[in-house]
Design goal:
By secondary structure, the chain is an alpha+beta fold. The protein has one domain. It is 38% helix and 27% strand. The strands form 2 sheets. Strands 3-6-7-4-5 form a 5-stranded mixed sheet. The chain has a two-stranded antiparallel ribbon with strand order 1-2. A hairpin with a 2-residue loop joins β1 and β2. The longest helix is centred in the N-terminal third of the chain and has 55 residues, at 2-56. It is rod-shaped.
Length: 168
Amino acid sequence: MKKKAQLKIQQMAFMLIAVTIFFILAGMFVLVIARSNLQKEAEILREEDSEHLVEKIANVPEFICGETFGSDRIDCIDADKVMVLKEKIEKYKDFWDIENIKIIRISSESTELCTMNNYPDCGIIQLFDNDAIGVSNFASLCRKESFSGESYDACEVVKVIVSYKPRS
């Protein structure tokens, strides 16, 4: 009788251990699935943030054209400000939490990167040297020029690409 009772106790102990291991494995499986979904949601939120930033980038003080004839311009990027910012871009490395801002002149056939030496006869203004996933929008790019002693704004349509690096 004693051996039968000990056998039942051992069976119950092994069953409790098996059930405990099953619930631990099931819990780990659920946590892995939840973490995977959380990473996907974080990536989607990061992409949405980049989309919102690319919509607003032309209207931040570092880029905006400013007042002309008494009214603010919307979605207008001042090319001269961007070129000055490009020279001091390391100070803004973590400011926007992005990898790159690229401004591509649509009307230009040049694919040359802009520097202070070749500006404005270039096609692409790239603020950071990183390439990553990009979200784009269109804006106008203006710079001051003069003709016969008169100053005027020379504007053109550009594609603004804000790139971000997906986090793993």
